[in-house]
Amino acid sequence: NDEWAARRKVAAHLRTLSEQVIARNADVTQLAALEAQLQQEILKRHQLETDLQQACQELETLNTIDNLTQLANRRRLNEYLQQEWRRLSREKVPLSLILCDIDYFENYHEIYGSKAGETGFQQVAQAISRATKRPSDLVARYGEQEFAAVLPNTDADGAVQVASAMRWEVKMLK
């Protein structure tokens, strides 16, 4: 009887151990599933962060580019002019600013219509932009019918040359 009692006790203990192993295996399986789910969530979060960074960059571009001309807008002009003014004043080198106004543009717009007016304005913007050659030069839409060009490291003679090139480029549009 004692032997049978010991065997039953060992059998009960083995059942308990077996149940514990099964429970731990279930826990391990559940942990593995949770880890896989966590990895998926991490990948999704990384993708969302990437998408958010891209959206922020696109928004920043929209905030600094004029929609019609695709040139820098007044906000970007102000930022760039201030940045270059500070930098070039430290270096004690010239900075030139050219302001351009499109004469009689309202008449053109009224005569040829809105679509032709927009196309013409875009062509003028590109013509003015073509006259600047250096990557550091910035052409921007300054107002309704005005443009500005920031020319770092450019003295008055150089600015006159660029302004003349702008006039010539616009004149060649016809």
Question: Can you summarize this structure?
Answer:
The chain has helices at residues 2-64, 74-91, 105-112, 114-130, 156-171, and strands at 95-101, 138-141, 146-152.
Query: Strand order, biggest sheet?
Result: 1-3-2
Gyration radius over CA: 35 Å
* Inertia-based shape: rod-shaped
Structural class: mainly alpha
Q: Overall pLDDT, averaged?
A: 91
Number of helices: 5
Topology as H/E string?
Answer: HHEHHEEH
Poorly predicted residue ranges: none
Please state roughly what percent of the residues sit in beta strands, choosing from under 5%, 5-15%, 15-25%, 25-35%, 35-45% or over 45%.
5-15%
Helix percent reads over 70%
Question: Distance between termini?
Answer: 117 Å
Number of strands: 3
Major sheet: size, sense and barrel closure?
3 strands, antiparallel
Can you characterise this structure?
With 174 residues, the protein is mainly alpha-helical. 70% of the residues lie in helices and 10% in strands. The chain contains 5 helices and 3 strands; from the N terminus they run ααβααββα. The protein has helices at residues 2-64, 74-91, 105-112, 114-130, 156-171; strands at residues 95-101, 138-141, 146-152. It has a 3-stranded antiparallel sheet with strand order 1-3-2, sandwiched between helices. Strand 2 (138-141) and strand 3 (146-152) form a beta hairpin. Helix 3 packs across helix 4 (114-130) and helix 4 (114-130) runs antiparallel to helix 5. It is rod-shaped, with a radius of gyration of 35 Å. The mean pLDDT is 91.
Summarize the helices and strands and which ones pair or pack.
Blueprint: H1 2-64, H2 74-91, E1 95-101, H3 105-112, H4 114-130, E2 138-141, E3 146-152, H5 156-171
Antiparallel strand pairs: 1-3, 2-3
